[in-house]
Structures are given as structure tokens and as C-alpha cells.
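Notebook p. 47: complex prediction with adenosine monophosphate.
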Amino acid sequence: MQASMQEFPLRVSEIIDHAALLHPDRPVFGRSIEGPILETNWRDIHTDAKKFAAALISLGLKKGDVVGVMAWNTPRHLSVWYGIPGAGGINHTLNPRLFADQLVYIINHAQDRFLMVDFDLLPIIENIIDQLPLVEKIIVMTDREHMPDSNIPDLLCYEELITPQPEGFDWVQGDETEACGICYTSGTTGDPKGVVYTHRSNVLHAMANCAADSASSNDRIMPVVPLFHANGWSIAYSAPMVGASMVMPGRDMTPKGLFEMLELGVTLTAAVPTIWMQLLQYLEENNLQLPNLEKVIIGGASCPRSVVETFQNKYDVQVLHAWGMTEMSPLGTICSFKPEIMEMDAKNRLDIQETVGHAPFSVSLKISDDAGTELPWDGKTQGRLWTKGAAVVKRYLKQDNDAVDANGWFDTGDMASITPQGYVRITDRSKDVIKSGGEWISSIALENCAVGHPLVAEAAAIGVPHPKWDERPILVIIAAGDTLPDKSEIMALMAQSFAKWQLPDDIIFMDEIPHTATGKISKLLLRKKLADQGYELPL
Ligand code: AMP
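Predicted complex, C-alpha cells below:
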């Protein structure tokens, strides 16, 4: 039978068109990089996105070209977010906190042709520009007055580029399965891996997000999570999709700066736990309240029970604990306030909120043992957590093999148990990674550096729980001979290659490190061994 329905292109430009048509005056506030807090709305963001798309085309952007963007969360970034795919380009988000060699790697690997950068971040690009042979044009996201002096010739000024453009630009059309954005995951060891989102996956994911978070046009949403982290948790898509108002916090991530932005009437906000722990401390010290805030999404790392408790009991703010990954666009599960949770007493509710909730529509999950046998959802049995879905990676950029098994399941590298009702508890990681304050630290890089010391035979870097940063790296070392290397010497060696926040908080000597059957260090067993020994991080 021939079906009767029209084909509606699931392209992200449709989202911003919708917001501009039906929610044109909804305010979008933002702390500009130039300084002041400004107010705009979806109509003007849409207009600027179209002008910027026209400007990109006039600069020679071709369909499928990659544009790297290193920028804070501002309304201008929202116009860029839609302007790039609207011109047929691919938006490659760049995390300014990455190490220079990682930035060079991902910009070259994704073949970024143009770069966009906030003016305060330009020095990062200046530092690496001679290693970026494919980059043709650099656009500084500011006006002429704030264009910095630079050793890079021919810098383009964003406001000057868009001002003369006509308003009626028609978005570049195409198939919904075309690439729309790229985000690299530096979570695993080795080189970062590129996850390429399609227009379709971003639209479907945003719809799933809206359904799960219950954001609406009555909300004023502040993404504290940067747009360069894991597809910006999709908030730059889901907020205009529901016609919500927004607050973009800019670069000031201090609790004081964030509180000032929350005071603009934010009802829903989202970030990693570390941000919220600092904010709660600031509120306490300054005897402040959160009268407007209704919900806070906390994810990217496990959220301590005390944070949930304080938000809910002291400030009357619902916590939505979420789990996800760059590879999942990123939402995997969210613990939203369903009726059965609302009815619970405080203790049972907190017990449930220690899980990361359940999957939204379009995300499938299962747990298995190491041999791949599926395990029951009994709330007790732990296994490897696998996923499948409409916005889950299939193959990393330029890799020869799929990232999924023969049945299409992607191994998340997390360990979990699942209750009969589908609530997921993340219990550990099978992947070899360390995440501190929401940013990854490469364990293999730490290990390779440490074994550069002549007295070190083997090194294993693992993350251990930390009350403020969620996790901090420690280094376990096997000495090469009878003489133990000096800890301060190893630290000094590592300080030559790593930023201070990436250095291990402790170095421990062991006689033996547990290995897997294939001879790799078993981080799972090593973490267990340390826990059994009652190891505690020196604070
Ligand atoms: P990323 O791709 O940077 O978003 O990192 C994804 C990884 O962060 C996941 O695979 C988990 O290991 C970790 N993660 C994210 N959310 C949570 C959470 N709520 N609890 C525990 N770990 C989390």
C-alpha cells in the first residue's frame, strides 16, 4: 500500500524557523563576552543565523564543509549554531580546555575549513595556527570595536560580516541524514574520536529530550553546560523547539556569576555536579535563595545524594539526575518526576534519584556479562551497559569499523544495574577513563609519561571518588627495581606535560597490579583492590 503522509525534513533549521515564527518575542538573555548582559529573542537570533549563513556562503562555504567553533554560551553562539548547518556546513564544537595537541588533532582530523572563535579565546588559536594547514578563514565572534590585535593576518569580524547580508536567505536544503555537527570524545584512551550527528538525529534527540525533561514555553532555560560539551546536551535545540526563553551565561562560571544569571528568572538549568556543589556553597555562605528555579538537570558525572537533598529540601528545586554520553547526543536516561516519584516519601525519592532514571523514548538499553549474555533487570545484577537508538553513534568519523556489535548495540563502557521498572544505576566503568569536574583526563597519557621515569616499570592511572570534583586521578606505580622512585620527581616529570588540574592527586607504590586475561591492566580490579585496602584520597 502506498502511504499517504508527506515527507517532513527533520533538519535543524526547522527548529529555529519554528521558534522565530511561533515564539518570536521570547526573551533570550546572555552575558556577552564583551561584558554587559544583553537581551534578544528568537526572532533576532533567527535573523542573525540567516545572515550568518549567507555570509558563510559568500565566503565560499560549500555543502559539507566543517566549521570549527570555540565559543562560550552566548546568544551569538546560538545564531552560529543554526547558521552553520543552515548554510549546509557542519558545526564542529571545540572545547577550549583541551590540550593544544588534542585541538590540533581534532581540527585537522575533522578537516575544519573555517574557524569561529570568541575574542578572548583567540590566543589558543594563535598558539596552534601554524599546525592547522587546512584552516582558510578565522572569524572572531565580536564587533569591530572588540577585535583583538593578533599575529594572525586577515581575521574576519563576525558582526561586520553579517551586518550587510540580506535577511531573506533560504536555508540550504538536503537530506535529513546529512551531517550537521561533530563532537569529539576525549573520554577514551588514544586519539579523540569524532561523533558526527545528523540533522535527523539531532531533531529526534531534541524531541526525546523535550518529552523527557518536560521543558515548556513557560520555562526560562540556562545551559551552564557549555555548547562544546556533548552536543551542548541538546539544549540549543530543545529550548527553541518548545519555545522556551533562555539565559546564556557567557564565560563567567563562578558561582557569583551564575547566581546573577539565575536571578534573571531561570526556571530550568543544567550542568555537571561540580558546578552545583560550588553554587550551593555560595548560596549557603551568602544566605541566598533560588526563588525562580524549579528544576536542575545534573549529569555528566554521578550526582551526590547530598546535592539532591539540599536542592530539594532547602531550595525547593527538583533535581533531574541524568546520564548520557557524547556518543548518545547525549541523553541516555533521566530521572524525571513521574507521578509515582512525586507520591514517594522523601527517603524513597532520594533512593530513586541516586539512579540516573530511565531511558526516554528512542533509547534502548540492556546489560550483559563479559561474554555478552544479557542480564536481568532486577536492580541487583551488574553488567556492561549497552545502548541502541535514533541518536546513538554507529561509527566514529573516519574509522574503518562500526562502533556497534553485529546487532547494532553500542558498549557504553559504563557498568550498571537496572531495576524492573527500568531505572539505571551506574555502578562503575569498564572503560579506562578519568573524568574530573566534567572534563576528561587521559589515563594513558598520564601512564605513558610516568613510565618515562627510569625507575618506573609500570603505571596505572585511575579515577577515585572526590567530594568536589567527582573524580580525581591517582597513579599506581610498580618500581623497576628495588629502589622506589621519588614521588616528587615523578610529579615534576609529569608537570612538564600536563596542566596542574590533570596531575594525579596521589602516587601509590604497589608490588603488583591486576591484569586481565589479555594482559591489560584491569582498572576494575585495581579500583576494587584499592577500595578493599580502604584507600582514601588525601584531601
Ligand atoms: P561524555 O561523553 O563526556 O558526556 O561522557 C560520558 C560518560 O560520563 C559516561 O559514559 C559516564 O561514564 C559518565 N557519566 C555521564 N553521566 C553520568 C552520571 N549521571 N553518573 C555517572 N557517570 C556519568
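Notes: Residues 185, 187, 230, 299-302, 321-326, 330, 356, 412-414, 426, 429, 435 surround adenosine monophosphate (CB under 6 Å). The chain has 16 helices and 24 strands.
Next step: compare against the earlier run before touching the bench.
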